[in-house]
Amino acid sequence: MHDKPPKGPAAATDPTTDDTALGTLLAAAHQRCRQAFNSGLRAAGIEARHFAVLRGLAQHGPVSQRELIELLDVDKSAMVRIIDDLERQGLAERRRAVHDRRAYAVRLTTEGEQRLATVQEIAVPIGRELFGWLAPKDREHLVTTLRQLACKPAR
User: Fold this and answer.
1) Rounded Cα–Cα distance for residues 44 and 48 (Å)
2) pTM
3) Where are the domains of the chain?
4) With respect to CATH, is domain 37-150 assigned 1.10.150.120?
5) C-alpha angle 63-89-66 in degrees, rounded to nearest 5
C-alpha cells in the first residue's frame, strides 16, 4: 500500500484516484471471495450462487422466482439454472403459487434446510478468514460503503 497516491503514469492505476482502477480492485476482491466460498462449499456439493439462493429462500421463502430474482438481484436465466440445480439435488422445489395458479413458488425442502445448516457451518470459518481481520470500525465502514454502492441507482 502507498502512504501517498503515486504520481505520473502510476496514478492512473491507483484506486484511490482512478475510478476504473477502483472498479477493477472491487471486482478482484469479489472474485477472491467467490473463489474461497466455492472452494469451501464444493465438499457440500454446492457453489456460492446456490448458497445465496438457499439463504434467500430460508429468509423469504416460499416466494416466486420473480420475487427471488428481485430480492437477490440475480439475472432471470441464471436464477432458473440455480433453481434447476437445487431441485435436482432435492434442496428446493417449485410448487404452484396459492395466489396465482400461473406462477410457481420456490421453497426449501427439508433436505435443503439441512444442507443449508451444514453449508453455513462451512461458510463461517471462510468468512472469518476473509473478513475477521478487519477492525470493527473498518468493517462497519466497509459495510456502509458497500450498501451505498449496492443501492445507488445507475444513471
Assistant:
1) 11
2) 0.81
3) 37-150
4) no
5) 20
